[in-house]
Amino acid sequence: MDRRQFIREIFLWSVGATLTIPRFNILPEALAAEKQASLLSLAKGEDSAALVAQVLRQLGGMAQFVRPGDRVVVKPNIGWDRSPEQGANTNPLIVKAIVAQALEAGAKKVLVFDRTCNEQRRCYSNSGIEKAVNELNDPRAVIEQIDQRKFVPVNISRGTALTKWEIYKDAIDCDCYINVPVAKHHGLSGLTLGLKNSMGVLGGNRGNLHHDLGQSLADLATVIRPRLTIIDATRILLRNGPQGGDVKDVKKLDTLIASTDPVAADAYAATLFGMQPDAIASTVAAYKLGLGEMDLARIKIVQA
Amino acid sequence: MEPKRRVAPAGWRKVSQALFFGVFLFLFFKTDYAGSDELKWAVNLLFRIDPFLAAAVMLAAKTVVALMLSALITVVMTLLFGRFFCGWVCPLGTLIDASRKLFGGSGGGVHPGKRHLKYYLLVILLTASCFGLQLAGYLDPFSLLVRGFAFAVHPALDHATASFFTWTYQSAPDWVNALTEPVYALLKRHLLPGTGRVYALSVFSLVFLLAVLGLSAVESRFFCRKVCPLGTLLSLCSRFSFFRLAGGSEDCGKCQVCQAICRMGAIDGARRIASMECILCLDCLSQCPRSRIHYGWKSASTGTQTINLSRRAVVASLATGALAPLVSPTRLLARRADPQLIRPPGAQAESMFLSLCVRCGECMKVCIGNALHATWLEAGLEGTFTPRLISRIGYCEYNCTLCGQVCPSGAIKQLTKDEKHTTVIGRAHFDKNRCLPYASGIPCIVCEEHCPTPDKAIKFREVEVENSTGNRVRLRQPYVLEAFCIGCGICENRCPLSGGAAIIVTSEGESRKEEVLVTGGY
At the top level of CATH, which class does the domain B424-512 belong to? Predict the structure, then answer.
């Protein structure tokens, strides 16, 4: 065997060996396919703190999600320069109660933020959320204006419409991400719920996502994985969403939804508007990616 | 040297300058949204104590601007005490003094030079105002200063700070960031604009300001001596002032220190101090070796000074001021205004607006959306530095009424939130050749999402179209409902197309109307 042949054989053996190694690419969701039905916690009432406490209790309490020392992100919708009554942003009292619960569970830090559509300071102020968080008067609870330096490019390997985007660092780094959208009408996507609320952690020109919004949101949901989704339906905006502006378009429901399954939460929330889960493109796309359950019959709803 | 004595009189002047410059900076930084719809501070204070602007604006608009009546205080004080305003208060004067050494630091001068030209300039400016052409804002010291600071200095400072702290954030170790990040947060909270800002004519405004400072290289306080129309007006008042500096005389000594150091060149060979030029900096009083100079009730010995204006030149100035406005109606824009020229909400009808606007830049500084920018020539030569909305750069925030609150002359009326919601500054229209749902069958309607009117001015139709790849798709095509559109420009701003937007706002349908009939119709 001369040197040349030696090299050739080494090469061929290597190629052969490499090709025969089975390459498994099993999605975690596929392995978990047989797990029990998604749990969805539902509560109704006027008192925000009690509502939050109840939906959490039905899921085993905040301690199930926030461990002592965790860095928690609570991500409400603060997108618009609107008052709480106008139903365009998450109810500040709901946000406050969730942050309080996370603090009580021993979080090291609870960060609240959103990349707003209207001017940031006006949105934070007029949504009432800035005041609500500051009222807790706890140095661990921080409401932060978007810091452009914190957007980092993230590869979305399972994405088809969206493969790479800049995402707010804390949304990915944190130990526990709690998504707190408000349920409301939206011209393009029909409704804006949990998956759509994740757009608030994106940098860049978000308008471009609208070309294939449903799939983009589902793709995004493969990397933004809330440990808990709490949908604020205390007031829902029925028309002229996502920013409304007329209280006549707002319906008071006093309802709060919580689930560890982001798709199930969105699926159920659609029914509050008299819609079927499959009317929302992002819900369907996320279901197809195996990110959660959209079949209402297979979602276990717990309600006191 | 003897041991330290009490502060020299000129020292007190410096203290006052520092104090008023501090006030200027404080009000400048407070010209920003601070968490409530109403501004807490009278941030436009400087422009309300400026008698030159007040005179020009009231002459041009033929109306009394109540907000600017406080300028009378300055006039009365000057009649009593002389031009202390220029020496002790004016922030531009302070900046000129402070930067003097940077520009070669030529000391005081003897040359009275062409000092009378400024009077002709004032005559031209005020006469032109009288005949409806108000140009006061170009040369007013405060307008000039605030424009330079608001358009260039402040944003540049912000960008520099952001770059530095981004660098530390990205490359410095954690312990450094533990120190720098709180500093940055503090700066952002109190001194820097909310987000990085850009301004039209920023470089130009800065060069203008630097030129004024740089003229000190020719002569100290050159601008104050020979150009500043506010100073000129005050100098006319101080001719009659009751208190003034005096004491030197032809035979008081040979040193002539006072004459050599006078930054205004107000002291002649006979050591007479011209009260019209003297800005009471008190250098002479402090440095006179024999302490002969003092400030007090004017005595007969001080005499009066003449300005030596030529009658012919005064008449020529009057004529220039009166005739210049005659040319205005010969321009194209007299027949049709530029449709891209969108004025802020609450702006008066155009001719009144131009009469009232003092080009102070306050509205552009405070504009929360960074939407208001200095006009170049779109409103004519006399319209430069007036505010216009450039939607692609920033949009008019639906609930914000700040520009009307800071306008010192009422060129932009103060609107309530409800009035603002119904004030039309323009209307949007689609460019269907570029708009995605029309041009290529791609879903979008970001404009509809952002449209802020409670009943949206942008609606959509559901249609089935063939897209660019030949497939039939159902999608939503937006259209504008004119009756609801107020021209805020958020649609144009947020249109995701790169380059120009596919939805464009023009001044069509704006609420402010000229009294005269529209010209150019049929």
Answer: alpha beta
Task: Give strand pairing partners of A180.
Answer: A76
Packing angle of the helix pair B174-190, B154-171 (nearest 10 deg): 160
Cα B138 from Cα B378, distance rounded (Å)? 16
- Alpha-carbon distance values, A116 to A89, A221, B493 (Å): 10, 19, 15
Residue B520 has pLDDT above 80, yes or no: no
ipTM score of complex: 0.91
Q: How far is A142 from chain B (nearest CA, A)?
A: 13
**pLDDT tens digits for range B113-138:** 678 899 999 999 999 999 999 999 99
* B146-160 burial code (b ≥16 CB/10 A, e <16): bbbbbbbbbbeebee
CA quadruple B178, B184, B190, B195: dihedral sign: negative
Mean pLDDT, to the nearest integer, of B355-374? 97
More confident residue, B506 or A10: B506
Dihedral of CA atoms B74, B77, B80, B81 in degrees, nearest 10, equals -100
Q: What is the dihedral of CA B158, B163, B164, B168, to 10 degrees?
A: 130
Are B454 and A240 within 8 A, CB to CB? yes
| Residues A153, A203: Cα–Cα separation, whole Å | 9
Domains of chain A are 37-303 (3.40.50.11440)
Contact B367, B394 (CB under 8 A): yes
Fill in the DSSP letter of residue A11.
Answer: H
Q: How many CB atoms lie within 10 A of CB B190?
A: 10
Q: Which residues of chain A have pLDDT under 70?
A: 19-36
Q: What integer pLDDT is reported at residue B1 of this predicted model?
A: 43
A63 CB neighbour count, 10 Å cutoff: 13
* Element of type H or E holding B308: none
* pTM: predicted TM-score of the whole model, two decimal places: 0.90
Preceding peptide of A242 cis, ω within 30°: yes
Banded model confidence at residue B299, pLDDT cuts 50, 70, 90: low
Most A-contacting residue of B171, B399, B420, B491 (CB-CB within 10 A), to test interface: B399
Query: For A81, which of B399, B449, B460 is closest by C-beta distance?
Result: B399
pLDDT tens for each residue of B455-477: 999 999 999 999 888 999 999 99
To the nearest 10°, report the CA torsion of B262, B267, B268, B269. Answer: -70
Q: CA-CA distance, A79 to A81, in Å (whole number)?
A: 7
Each domain of chain B, given as residue ranges in start order, spans: 9-30+37-144+207-302, 424-512
B444: nearest CB among A210, A240, A249: A210
Q: β-strand A250-259 against A228-237: which pairing, if any? A: antiparallel
Mean pLDDT for all residues in chain B: 91
- Contact across the interface for B456 and A240, Cβ inside 8 Å: yes
Closest Cα in chain A, distance from residue B345 (Å): 18
Q: How far is B492 from chain A (nearest CA, A)?
A: 12
Is residue B107 pLDDT above 60, yes or no?
Answer: no
Q: Give residue-wise pLDDT tens across range A44-64.
A: 999 999 999 999 999 999 999
Residues near B296 by beta carbon (within 8 Å), at least 6 away in sequence: B243, B244, B246
